[in-house]
Design goal:
Residues 6-75 form the Transcription elongation factor GreA/GreB N-terminal domain. The chain is built from 3 helices and 7 strands, in the order βααββββαββ. It is of the alpha/beta class. The two termini are 31 Å apart.
């Protein structure tokens, strides 16, 4: 059973494009690879055929997973986001109390997370530690490197 996947409209469009590519380009290419390998002789000792069949199986699993993800999507709109507390799609500025460094993160779904762009997953340790907090709150977040203390400085969209 799949859980709800909260994403933006743009990410849904990217997922649909990827699914379309897999169905219209990758799937026929996999079928051609199997056909070409089949023409090369005995299937019992044909490693190329086995590899093509395995690649097709992996592709079909990816298609099924993407279809399942798309079916469980809920679209998030920044206009409806409550900025009184940290939630998904909010941009939160935090102060690391140990280093006195300010960092701004946007809390997003796992599918949209990209640390280089300052987007952290709602399911990451920092994302979970910030959820529900309000400006002025101090939170302790357990990360693989230890425990970090953050103070919430600002919450915007």
């Amino acid at each position: 059973m799949s859980s709800v996947l909260y994403i933006t409209k743009e990410t849904l469009e990217q997922m649909k494009e990827e699914l379309l590519r897999m169905r219209t380009v990758d799937r026929p290419a996999a079928a051609r690879a199997i056909a070409e390998a089949r023409e090369k002789g005995d299937l019992k000792e044909n490693a190329e055929y086995d590899a093509a069949k395995e690649a097709q199986g992996i592709l079909e699993a990816k298609i099924k997973k993407l279809e399942s993800d798309i079916a469980s999507v809920r679209i998030l709109d920044t206009e409806n986001v409550d900025t009184s507390k940290v939630s998904i799609l909010t941009k939160v500025t935090i102060l690391n109390l140990a280093t006195k460094k300010k960092i701004t993160y946007t809390i997003v779904s796992e599918k949209e997370a990209d640390l280089k762009q300052g987007k952290i997953s709602v399911t990451s340790p920092i994302g979970q530690g910030l959820l529900g907090k309000v400006v002025g709150d101090v939170t302790e977040v357990t990360v693989p490197a230890g425990v970090l203390k953050f103070q919430i400085e600002e919450i915007t969209v």
